[in-house]
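#help-structures
NK: newbie question, is this the right format to request a structure? protein is ABC-type transport permease protein
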Amino acid sequence: MRKEFADHVSGWRMVILVLLLMVTGIGSLYTAAQTIRSVVGATAATPSFVFLRLFTGGSTQLPPLTWFMAFLAPLLGIALGFDAICGEQNRRTLSRVLAQPIHRDAVINGKFLAGLLSVTITFVALLLGVGGLGLIMLGVPPTGDELLRLVAYGVLTIIYVAFWLALAILFSVVFQNAATSALASIAVWLFFNVFWDLIVNVAAGDDPVGLGLWLMRLSPGYLYSEATVTLLTPKVRTLGAVTLEQVLGALEGVLSVDQSIMLIWPHAVGLVALTAVCFAVSYILFMRREIRA
């Protein structure tokens, strides 16, 4: 794991992706800060949960930071895992590594844990950087509730990227060509981000709320996006369809952190289950794979 982590940190692949995330994060932060300032200037009152709006606020020119994270974060997991096994085998180094007193499961476990550690450090640094710049630009410190929500959002993002990392490692075990593994991973990413909405709209037909919502939640990206909105927007009090009887007489208010987490708990469990399934399949296939030349 230490060796793989050092390779990730010193490689140009991760540097390029981190720079891409930094540029989008700074751009979204600047747009959100300008939007918040315009609201404060027009109403002469500080909006509620102003620090969270740095991550959820956007404009017609630039989407919020959470949108960019949902769209670009999977690329980091794919980039760190698409050649984890097939790259080693094509370079003829996998058989040499396993010729040493190293267990086979240590190889795939170390690659997954090193990628997960790289992702964790990257997103913790990104959240701290965006939060620090937002604090300088606004001068309004976050509350304890906002800090807990941001911590939960960071954990959820790491789980989401871990799924794409596990999926990329699975394709690196299934395919012997690194280009084919990368293409398969990106194809799955594009399918759920671009084409899944179209398929659901056609399949749902006259029932976009019931069947359509159930089908949309089969997408990992939709699970992550819905959970992110619930966490960072405390005014969201329910998920799914709301009847007129439920709206009439309801009191206005916001959810506490624990209630928001309970609301998105099935989403987090679903992402963890998908990650575990992908890694378990890749683990079984790798343990049974013939790696000798």
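mod (FA): yep, format's fine, and the tokens are attached above. The longest helix spans residues 104-138.
NK: thank you!
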